[in-house]
Design a protein that fits this description.
The chain is of the alpha+beta class. It contains 30 helices and 26 strands.
Amino acid sequence: MGKTNPTDIRTGDYLKVSCENSPFGIIWTDEAGNILFATESAVRLFQSTVNEFTGRNIQELLAPGSVTEWNDTLTSVSTNEELHRRWSIVSKTGETSFANVIVKKVTLASANYLVIYIDQSKSAKDPDEMLRIISQGTASVIGGDFFRSLAYHLVNTIGIRYAIITECANIAKTRLRTLVYIERENFLDNFEYELAGTPCELVMQGRAYYCEECLEEIFPKEEGIQAYFAVPIYLHNGEIVGHLAIFDTKPMKVSQQQLSILQIFANRAGAEMDRKLKEMVIEDDMIRYQNLFEDSPIGLCEEDFSEVKKYIDKIKKDYGTDLATVFKKYPNELRSCWQKVKRLHANKSQVALFNVQSQQQYFNYLEETFMPAAFENLLLVFESGQRVFEREIEIKAADGERKYVNVKRVILSGTEKDWSKSILSCVDITIQKQVQENLKHALSEVKLLKEKLEAENIYLQEEIKHEHNFDEIVCKSDVLIKVLEKIQQVASTDATVLILGESGTGKELIARAIHSTSGRADRPLVKINCAALPANLIESELFGHEKGAFTGALAQKIGRFELADKGTIFLDEIGELPLELQSKLLRVLQEGEFERLGSNKTIKVNVRVIAATNRELEQSVADKEFRADLYYRLNVFPVVSPPLRDRKEDIPLLVNHFCRKHGMKIGRQIRNIPRATMDALMAYDWPGNVRELENIIERALIVSTGESLELGDWLPSTQRKSFGANTNGNASSASTLTLEDIEKEHIIKVLDQTDWKIRGEDGAATRLGLNPTTLEARMKKLGIKKQKA
């Protein structure tokens, strides 16, 4: 063979030889990526042939993760610009490796081409390159995507067949479940398995485990597996929660640096599991929160007040004053603020509270028609820097129903400046409010009944002290028997009774007899003497007063009419009632209603009225001292109580009755009443009537020394002679004195003895056994006046 002449070699041959022997693989494609030409060195990288290679698209040669890199290349490369990339390429047999590429865009004969130079001289198993590739591949992903990306890049950078990432499947940590299970580029189904008898058991005890070959001989359960390397995955608190493992069906050599990289990403996987667990906790909490929020019996609504805050700042600036002044002068601004509240979510209870069917209906109702009166106060509270506003308000639901609600709005922490997050809670307290009102009303009634009962007890105790035997009217005279017949006639009715008669004739006994035989006997007979109290206190006694109604009214007082409700009231000495109170009494008689002093609340009562007087009411009406309409209203059924002088046949009965009554008190028993004593008592005309007789008998019991009644120095005949003495000391015959003369002389004598003092224990009225007003009436009638000195 002759020697070749270099000049015989063409330029194209030099280029062809250079391309074929270049350490770089060279591929020409059109702009769409279709392969037009490839060097032998490029074809060998893909373990393919030129015929199989030509005509394919470059994307078919790239691993799935690098396809997007190709698309990015097409949009980035420009004429005469070099792009340096790192591609993951797939061989004909399916093995994946990494290569550095340079892409250039060239133009020949007006056509654009891509020239790709592939450099696989730098192995992906280089620790630095491996760290870079895995870091880039996992940097932007989290969760399940992170674990898949990590496993994928581990397999493809190390060139191993399998990789798994696991987590504990039970509390005892005897089982694992795979989060990722990959064979080369194929993700397989996840599964669970028992740790016992596997190398994973050693890793879960807290140490890395590396077996270069013959793993199945050490762990028979791992049939077909030769090489294995795994490291534990820790949480931040040091707890082992899983492991990261790579393994193959053929022996595997892994450098110490690669093992360290594996440990680094195991730690990264632990951090991701930490994050995942925290996310799960947060997600569980959010689910619980949403469930609690949605199903809460309390009405809840999430609200955004940020637009309200901006608007408030604007109107304060526009008007140049504080918020309270703006709302006072320009109330429409408050409505504008209400319409700027953003309501994000309302639970079922809040929707139901306003009697609507959906959240949107609730929002619409609030925006269009409803604005609580407390909204202005809410904004002023928030504006002052407070985060919580709570108030009890009345609302009107969409159907017009009125409800009472305890409202609480809270600006959540971190949003105090912009009010962007707040929670509204509403508790329906309508039933509680009604119960409170009912309870308050019931307590008020109980208090009133208690006070009424206490007043009745006090009144009855006072009555008991007086020891009135109102069911014992001692008589045999025809005139009093006729009175008793009239009592029987009127008792069963509710007619008003007017008892007329002199003082001491037993008018109160007649009133008690009427009450005790009436249908109201189970209720008290309430008595008031209209002449016994000052005029300014009679109204309070009759009708009661409120606390503070006048000076000295330290507590509420129930009046006698209220106390006598459904019972009977006895108005003694009705003729002495002040004229200004007579109209009020007339109203009670006609309408059955009145007001306490100091109150405008009308009280209705059902009271039977029995009145008594020793005055001539007709004359009082004529003298305009007593209202005619009240007189006619009282004089429905008049009963006249006869004086003792008109029923002297009752004196022996009364004497015996009083001897028994007062004898028991002082411990003295009278068995004999001398004839002379009885005659003397019968001969006297008794201007003080039964009351005077009772006083004389009580005095006689005191002075009597034995079982016979002795009158002492009291003798009617002697008194009659003294009554006949004139002012000059000349005696007049008893037969020339009238009854009125005797009564007048006796009253004057007693007045002289008391220095004309009428009232009080040592006054003339007490000595005579008369009521002071009765004595004054008698003095007026008899023309008795104190002589001027």
